[in-house]
Amino acid sequence: MKKKKKPALGSSLDDLLDQDGTLGEATAIAMKRVIAHQLERSMKERNLSKTQMSKIMHTSRSALDRLLDEQNTSVTLQTISNAAKAVGKRLRVELVDG
Length: 98
Known about the structure:
There is one protein chain. By secondary structure, this protein is an all-alpha fold. The radius of gyration is 18 Å and the shape is elongated.
């Protein structure tokens, strides 16, 4: 016998965060976590230390630490693009319908 799926109650998390006024911040943090994770994984795959990575990017170690900090969303697209290039990737950004 198949169980009937109960209908969802209330609104979605996105709706709740939007009403709360924190959707933009939560989305930015989520995207930054993904980017930081992808960069760290790519660095490991290429056996790059933070010191080596910062030298390739022509930046300071503290700037790289800010980039890899999942909570710090105040990095530029240029910095993210430079980091992507340093690990053999490229950055792609797009706007999608909400």
